[in-house]
Amino acid sequence: MNKTEIVKKGIELDAPLNLTWSCYERNDMACGRCQSCTLRLNAFADAEAEDKIPYV
């Protein structure tokens, strides 16, 4: 599965995706710039879903 498929499956299963973390930075909010954040943001966009975690 790719990240978009994972997001779609998580939504289908009503998984708490807002409790997942992808950022490489160790902060209270995700940076939105690292490779992992970029992949996550693109996956949510491709799935036409809102990523509800806080970003800097």
TrEMBL record:
Transmembrane spans: none
Pathway assigned to this chain's UniProt record: Purine metabolism; 7-cyano-7-deazaguanine biosynthesis
Substrates-to-products reaction catalysed: 7-carboxy-7-carbaguanine + NH4(+) + 2 ATP = 7-cyano-7-carbaguanine + 2 AMP + 2 diphosphate + 2 H(+)
Pfam families assigned: QueC (PF06508)
EC code(s) of this entry: 6.3.4.20
A molecular-function term among this protein's GO annotations: metal ion binding
Keywords associated with the record: ATP-binding, Ligase, Metal-binding, Nucleotide-binding, Queuosine biosynthesis, Zinc
InterPro entries per the UniProt record, alphabetical: QueC (IPR018317), Rossmann-like_a/b/a_fold (IPR014729)
Presence of the UniProt keyword Hydrolase in the record: no
Signal sequence range: none
GO-annotated biological processes: tRNA queuosine(34) biosynthetic process
Family: Belongs to the QueC family.
Record-given protein name: 7-cyano-7-deazaguanine synthase
